[in-house]
Amino acid sequence: MKRVYSDYLNDIIAEIDLIFDFCKEIKNASEFLNDKKTVRATILGNLSVRI
């Protein structure tokens, strides 16, 4: 089947959406890591699970 330009454009748009989603995840992760209370609670929670 012959692909048309709109198929290629849809593929490019889908890839751009994935990049934006990835950037949002990085932003959320950096906010999480910068919140000392959240990080401390996570570390303590992980330690208590291992003990």
Q: What can you see in these coordinates?
A:
The protein is mainly alpha-helical. The chain has one domain (5-50). Helix content is 88%, strand content 0%. It has helices at residues 5-34, 36-50. It is rod-shaped, with a radius of gyration of 20 Å. The chain starts with a helix and ends with a helix.
For the terminal residues, how far apart are their CA atoms?
A: 59 Å
Radius of gyration of CA atoms, rounded to a whole number: 20 Å
The tally of helices reads 2
Largest sheet, if any?
none
Number of strands: 0
Strand content: under 5%
Q: What is the approximate shape? A: rod-shaped
Percentage of residues in helical conformation: over 70%
Q: Show unreliable segments.
A: none
Write down the domain tally: 1
Which structural class do you get from the secondary structure elements? mainly alpha
The pLDDT mean sits at 81
**H-E string:** HH
Relevant terms:
mainly alpha, 2 helices, 88% helix
Quick description:
Helix content is 88%, strand content 0%.
Show the helix and strand layout.
Layout: H1 5-34, H2 36-50
